[in-house]
Specification:
Blueprint: H1 3-22, H2 25-39, H3 48-87, H4 89-94, H5 96-116, E1 128-134, H6 138-158, E2 162-170, E3 176-184, H7 188-192, E4 197-204, E5 213-224, E6 239-244, H8 252-256, E7 260-265, E8 270-274, H9 280-310, E9 322-327, E10 333-336, E11 342-343, H10 346-350, H11 355-370
Parallel strand pairs: 4-9
Antiparallel strand pairs: 1-3, 1-5, 2-3, 4-5, 6-7, 7-8, 9-10, 10-11
Helix pairs in contact: 1-3, 1-5, 2-3, 3-5
């Protein structure tokens, strides 16, 4: 234990204390205790829907608290070592290697907690709706949209999010025209908002007999699932409803009745649809929830743009802004144009290994906020 290590350890312990306050660690512990107390009540399971929400909430909060539990154990070792070193110089020498190892662990754990600060936005903890749209590029673009769908499903599965495909429209030849996902889990919107924008693929087209290089585009839009108590006025007269036969999986009932619902919000042109539920009523309810979230985010984006203009900032719109290139020919590279992060392991990215890109973007946003 040298003086430099001791100073660093003391500084890291202070940072940890600040992070507990900023990330509401104590409040999370109280929430856990409160939910567990409710779960012990005899009538807890009388309302299945409410009970399930509490179970999911408990699971999500515990996932947030877990990193603190890891860091607390290491921080406890370091605090003990500092106390012993202050009492006897021999203790400082004897604990040298163990102290250095714990210090290295503490650095990494605190860096992970500091990353959590990038997920403190108003809706970052919310569930999310994700919409994938094919763009320019014909059949290749539809195939690219389906590749992105697989990529995100793999990513979400890997990180223990719950995903439901609410709507999917297949292209006749190959791929999909669009797909809508409902993603549940702590920080679903916080992570996925990094993916909003246009994704560009360059490859040798499997649909071109001349085997020429082809560029395809697909767009990603993500909105938070807003609470039901948030007041968003939607007039029935502003809605156009279409009912049609669902085309995807879901059993006989889904496919032989006009249960799928498409809702167009006439004033804004926003169109949402849902065909995965078992009844027309359920599809309409889910589609209205998606519409409410889309309109809410639209209003929040408008206000953010107005604030940016007031401060003289230049903002690109989220939809239509190219954020990431995926190149499979003539070389192999995935590069995020916002952060500059790149990798040659294209296959890993398309298999859902997105977290490095997501973290880089969120840290990039923190950096911009400090400028």
């Amino acid at each position: 234990m040298n003086p430099e290590e001791i100073r660093e350890a003391q500084n890291l312990l202070k940072i940890l204390s600040d992070l507990k306050e900023k990330l509401a660690y104590e409040e999370s512990l109280k929430e856990i205790a409160s939910i567990e107390e409710k779960m012990n009540e005899q009538d807890f399971w009388d309302n299945q829907d409410a009970a399930q929400k509490h179970v999911e909430e408990l699971k999500n909060i515990k996932a947030v608290v877990a990193p603190f539990e890891k860091v607390e154990a290491v921080a406890g070792n370091i605090e003990t070592a500092l106390e012993l070193a202050a009492e006897a110089e021999e203790a400082a020498e004897a604990l040298g290697d163990e102290f250095s190892a714990d210090l290295e662990k503490l650095r990494g754990l605190i860096a992970e907690l500091e990353f959590r600060l990038s997920l403190t936005g108003e809706h970052d903890k919310s569930d999310a709706f994700m919409v994938i749209h094919c763009g320019a590029g014909g059949t290749d673009a539809c195939d690219w949209a389906q590749m992105l769908l697989r990529m995100y499903l793999r990513f979400l599965e890997r990180h223990n999010f719950t995903v439901k495909v609410l709507d999917i429209n297949y292209e006749d030849e190959a791929g999909i025209k669009d797909a809508t996902l409902e993603v549940k889990g702590r920080y679903a919107f916080g992570y996925l908002r990094s993916e909003i924008g246009v994704h560009r693929l360059v490859r040798i087209s499997p649909f071109n007999y001349a085997a020429k290089r082809h560029t395809s585009f697909a767009s990603i839009d993500v909105t938070p699932v807003v609470d039901e108590d948030i007041d968003i006025e939607i007039n029935e007269s502003d809605l156009k409803l279409d009912f049609f036969r669902a085309s995807g999986a879901g059993g006989q009932h889904v496919n032989v009745t006009d249960s799928a619902v498409r809702i167009t919000h006439i004033p804004t042109g926003v169109v949402v649809s849902c065909q995965n539920e078992r009844s027309q009523h359920a599809n309409r309810r889910t589609a209205m929830q998606i519409l409410k979230s889309r309109l809410y985010k639209r209003e929040m984006d408008r206000r953010a743009e107005e604030r940016a203009k007031a401060y003289g900032e230049k903002m690109s719109t989220s939809f239509g802004s190219q954020i990431r290139n995926y190149v499979q020919h003539p070389y192999r590279l995935v590069k995020d144009v916002r952060t500059g992060l790149e990798t040659g392991n294209v296959d890993a990215i398309l298999d859902g290994d997105l977290m490095p890109f997501i973290k880089a973007y969120l840290r990039h946003q923190i950096g911009k906020g400090r400028q």
